[in-house]
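Working notes for the structural subgroup meeting. M.R. asked for a predicted model of this chain before we commit to crystallization trials. I am recording the input and output together here so anyone reviewing the notebook later can reproduce the run.

Input as submitted:
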Amino acid sequence: MATLAGGLTDINALPGLKSLWAETLGDPGICVAILDGPVDQSHPCFKGVQFTQLQTLMPGVADKGWASQHGTHVASIIFGQQGSPVSGIAPGCRGLIVPIFSDGAEGSLAPCSQIDLARAITQAVEQGANVINISGGQLAASAESDRLLANAIRLCQENNVLIVAAAGNDGCECLHVPAALESVLAVGAMDAQGNPIGFSNWGKAYQNQGILALGENILGGSPGSGTALKSGTSFATPIVSGIVALLLSIQLQRGEKPDPHAIRDAILKSPLPCNQQNGLDSRRCLVGRLNISGAYTLIAKGGIKPLLNEKLEEVILQPSEADNLIEQPQPSEAQTSIPITMSIGANPMVVTPSNKTTSSVAPSECASCAGGGSPQIVYALGQLGYDFGSQARLDSFIQAIFPNNPPRGIPEDILLNYLSENPYYAQSLIWTVELDATPIYAILPSGPFAGVVYDRLREFLSDGNIERVSIPGYSGGSIRLMSGQVVPAIIPEVRGMYGWSLEALLNVLIEDGTEEGVTREVLQDRIREVLDRIYYDFRNLGVTPQERALNFSATNAFQLSIAISTASENDQVLDTIDVEKSPICRPDSDCYDVKLRFFNPENSRRARKVYRFTIDVSDVIPVTIGRMRSWSEA
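Returned structure, recorded in token form:
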């Protein structure tokens, strides 16, 4: 590698990179998703790049703000065309732009919750991403996340999609989510001499799944036509993502099936040691430094020629403290982080200039550190809620209900009575679907039966026994709530809207008395266990076909009760619930099998019992196909 005038690090000289380029500059059959700020796709470095931008809850139009600067810089490190102001690592690959950061009011940054991050990851997987680059993360005490984000990470594993995420810039033995989550490839930052930079994190999980890459004075594009130098794990991350994309392209061009997680393993098994000087703590080095040639050799399994006889030793750069902008200079940035707020537990924690929390996630930039398509089908399960949208709307309700002596708020029972007497007011509320008191969707009735939908929502809310609702429909647009949170809107399909309580459901499913010696109480407990597993352990956004099949299975609890009742007769209890693509399906349908496995907890040698029923999720209202099947397995 080389150091250019002004301290610029020439990433084009990364050892092993030119040899990869000799085989490919990237194949358009390989897709890299950028989950970041908006990207200025008109920048000269992107001329000819195959970009697809997805609609998210964040504005997708690039401007001069911090979010766009960050997103454009990250994207250019991967997709910058050769001969342009920025030469990227994998310019021939296809790009998927998924905005998750945006600028807020008065120089602040709009938050992104863990739920929103999970949505973006799911969108990227559904649109065919092979690699997902996340140059940001949330400082976390442990490698745990919200259940919805964990589900999205698992979706990546199941579809062999690799997430490459920044380790964070806190300069401590600490972790960031999602970088610390299982199956993710975490990226720390090293300087031009091959040493970890002081701000790069080195938490315990990174010792097994973290790699160091160059993260100092990295050239990238700025909105408009300029370029800039930036430092941080944010900019080390796309270097690794680009290398993964090139290795996937080589696999594809050689007739092999692209295997991102095999490449992750090769990167983690072929690191170079740090230049540990002055008693450097070895933990700061994570697994080691990125070794492009070594990863290539492992992927080739010895059957592919060496990379032009290049040595595996890395060439060391000269140190540089410069952080100036190249070509079109601009004032230096105040290096505050772009917050991504992660919703943990019941309440979303929003980061604003006056409300700092430890639950914020920032794009891992550290310039101040020293050294479109078809409408998405949704089948959502959750609790019904409502929101006023703005203080003005709330005040209008208060003044209408209490014209003489308005209080500061409205008790729910009084609001419900008012809606019953004035049903047209229901259209002025924002109705929501919630998980653990966190809104995940706004319900937006539309069309000739919108009034019927509002009537049903009022009925659900006024019935104190209803614990959960099912809201199928199509995702369309987004709505800002009174808290400032932006959630996607569901245009509901009224014929699939149901509300129920667990007790009422159990009473319908179970007849009085006993059945084959199994008491009603035992059956209630077993059915409750299965439904609770779906409602809590497997709670989801209802977007992917697997999620919609699982959610529909909870509303079609009659089939579940048959399986549970039969298993209970044999003293078996629930072990696992899986959703798999069905090998048999009708033409023009999309079928998934929901499989329940039961075992005998007192005799593990007894055969397990498997029950399977098939659900077609091709329509907005899923339907079951055929009868339930069962068999025993060892």
